[in-house]
Amino acid sequence: MNNIVTSRTELRQLIRHRRQQLNPSQQHQAAQALAGRFSQWPELSDCQHIALYLSNDSELDTWPLIHALWQQQKNIYLPLLHPFTAGHLIFQHFLPNTPMRSNQFGIPEPDWSCPDLIPLSELDLIVTPLVAFDEQGNRLGMGGGFYDRTLAGFSARTAAGSPRLVGIAHDCQQVERIPVEAWDVPLPAICTPARFFLL
């Protein structure tokens, strides 16, 4: 294992532990603050089809944000593990009454419904999870590479392209520098409860 992989693994463990130390009250306050900050992002007005995700492993709770976006009449989509292309994600429309199931990692996802799937090119915004980030927009994920592979074709898009990419995280997940690999997809924007980083 080379040094960059070792440092990424150690950093991932460190920040996951830091995130897991947040108590329920801190988690609740952070989720509410982020939902409020994100909902006021000016670029959100141009976004109707938004991919989000359900929180796992002490990630910042996305439910307040999902409900805030529903109140703004936004269409929300959740990721599913691609059934035919290993290591990739597809996105499906998500409503309060959408049937759910657990995937192979124990993470809830919508029960497969082909008519409710949306092509990546028709999404206006994709909100990505992350373990750690830096001010340059570099993102460290859980290590599975699902978002990196799925979004690789969009890494060179300009801010005017579609879909836009934005990461969300607790403030404690910011680090000085992420060790970068060639396949990493940097994010043009990252939202935390305290601030919005625009790169």
UniProtKB/TrEMBL annotation:
Keyword field: ATP-binding, Ligase, Magnesium, Metal-binding, Nucleotide-binding
Top-tier EC class: ligase
GO molecular function: 5-formyltetrahydrofolate cyclo-ligase activity
Catalytic reaction equation(s): (6S)-5-formyl-5,6,7,8-tetrahydrofolate + ATP = (6R)-5,10-methenyltetrahydrofolate + ADP + phosphate
Pfam families associated with the record: 5-FTHF_cyc-lig (PF01812)
Domain of life: Bacteria
Named cofactor requirement(s): Mg(2+)
Keyword Metal-binding part of the UniProt annotation: yes
Enzyme Commission number(s): 6.3.3.2
Xref: SUPFAM superfamilies: NagB/RpiA/CoA transferase-like
Family, similarity comment: Belongs to the 5-formyltetrahydrofolate cyclo-ligase family.
Protein name: 5-formyltetrahydrofolate cyclo-ligase
